[in-house]
Amino acid sequence: MVVGMTVLAGRRAAGDADVVLAPANADGPPLGALVWPHESEYVIASQSPVSGTRVQQYDGVVITYARTGSEGPGAAWGQGATSAQASTRQPRCRPSA
Description:
By secondary structure, the protein is of the alpha+beta class.
């Protein structure tokens, strides 16, 4: 469903399908906080459950991702993993509108 899309496009597609993209660490920050303000620079590398699996409305689809232009998975953070769980990047606060 979303593998190969940017996180931005994947979040839109997931929303259209009434599911939610989520980082691997359910206790960590939300996906938007991990990739903001560069959602269009991160590409989804994997998803669980895999495409074609039936899920209930509003269920979470766990993704891993990598920043485009990086030299392999997780290179944006100097790590060997692409999951949000492995990220040491500190989330930024969104300015209020």
